Amino acid sequence: MSPFTFWIDFTSYYKYWDIFEVEDHMVKLNKESMCRHCGYKSKLSANVKKHIRRIHMKATPFPCKFCTFKFKDKSDLQNHYKIKHGVVLRAREIDHLFMLSMITHIPGTTSVLCKICGYSSNSKPNVKRHVVSKHTQIRYPCQFCSATLSQEGDRRLHYQKRHGLTLSTSQIREMFENQHESLE
């Protein structure tokens, strides 16, 4: 084995929601990733993450909103939506549906709870921001550099500070949508 390898601590992956904290359990030693459980290797850490979810995890954190099926992987859920329900969803939309399913109101209080880690707040938007930034792969890319940000408002501030652009969130969304459509 190369001394330059990512090590993924497999033991924590038996916890249901730790799938979203894969990177916390990786140590960068070089340009290669490896599953500590079985030795599977790849130059792309995303391939090792997908391998762990598909082969070793029992958790199915991606439920279908239309039926009782649950999936280990976003791409499997996307295919299911398309084939069984005739619905085409982008990965970002699936992340959003997942995020909404992880928020619940605490009965008898004004608090809203994150089902993943127990974080609570009296503000539903605060809990949504928490779930997106801590538990999903939703990222807001900069159209001008390689930066990706975990919150939409952070992207607006990034444009202002890094690129000298003062844009509203709706202008940024429109710019991103136009760029995305031109690529398709």
Automatic annotation (TrEMBL):
<dbReference type="GO" id="GO:0005634">
    <property type="term" value="C:nucleus"/>
</dbReference>
<dbReference type="Pfam" id="PF00096">
    <property type="entry name" value="zf-C2H2"/>
</dbReference>
<dbReference type="InterPro" id="IPR036236">
    <property type="entry name" value="Znf_C2H2_sf"/>
</dbReference>
<dbReference type="GO" id="GO:0008270">
    <property type="term" value="F:zinc ion binding"/>
</dbReference>
<dbReference type="GO" id="GO:0010468">
    <property type="term" value="P:regulation of gene expression"/>
</dbReference>
<protein>
    <recommendedName>
        <fullName>C2H2-type domain-containing protein</fullName>
    </recommendedName>
</protein>
<keyword id="KW-0863">Zinc-finger</keyword>
<dbReference type="InterPro" id="IPR050688">
    <property type="entry name" value="Zinc_finger/UBP_domain"/>
</dbReference>
<keyword id="KW-0862">Zinc</keyword>
<feature type="domain" description="C2H2-type">
    <location>
        <begin position="33"/>
        <end position="61"/>
    </location>
</feature>
<feature type="domain" description="C2H2-type">
    <location>
        <begin position="62"/>
        <end position="85"/>
    </location>
</feature>
<keyword id="KW-0479">Metal-binding</keyword>
<dbReference type="InterPro" id="IPR013087">
    <property type="entry name" value="Znf_C2H2_type"/>
</dbReference>
<keyword id="KW-0677">Repeat</keyword>
